[in-house]
Amino acid sequence: MRLFKFFGIAASVSTLAACVQAPVHLDYSALRNSDPHSILIVPVINRSVDVDAPDYFLSTISRPIAERGYYVFPVNLTKRVMEDDGLSDANMVHAQDPTKLGKMFGADAIMYITIDRWDARYLVISTTVTVELEYVLKSGTTGQTLWKHHQRVFYQPQGSSGGNPLATLIVAAVQAAIAKAKPNYIPLAQRANFLSVGMHGQGLPAGPYDSQYKADITDY
Predict the structure, then answer these.
(1) Among 125, 105, 114, which Cα is nearest to 171's?
(2) Which CATH architecture has domain 2-11+25-199?
(3) Which terminal residue of the chain has fewer beta carbons within 10 Å of its beta carbon, N or C?
(4) What is the per-residue pLDDT across 161-178, written as a single tens digit (0 to 9) for each?
């Protein structure tokens, strides 16, 4: 009886993956009017317990924005320039007037990102790996907020053992332990970026270096 109760719990928590919130309608009038061609990605505020999360995340964000047709300033180079200018703390950078950053780099828009969660939590025989991010794009000339989005993505490993309940429990326990010991956040960060930046109708509209530039105006 105890085994069947345990198996019932396992079945309820071992369903997968990559759950995300439903798309919401966004107002793109400010972004359309500003018409940014270049985007500066500033250091990320980290509210998670993982001190390495900002560096890992920054390795995932430039490509999806560039693929939407915007020029993206090299994140490592701009980070070093800001550090040399006394802006080594992400909270300090986010508190800066966006127009000052815009003038410093000649950027049309500034992308601010906050990591709310970047963790792996263990429950019974399941580990849930979660990435939760807040994106805000501001004008580099007026400081106006042009676009913002909140995204949460999580994953639960799901094992298979050919229908044997005991083997299913063992496989699930092993996978949960591996996920807890060494969670892989990068695919989740990439998924969150795609849903936030690249998702049709809720991400960034096509930029000036994309063939759909201004052709997708009715979709946003």
Answers:
(1) 125
(2) 3-Layer(aba) Sandwich (3.40)
(3) N
(4) 445 444 443 344 444 444
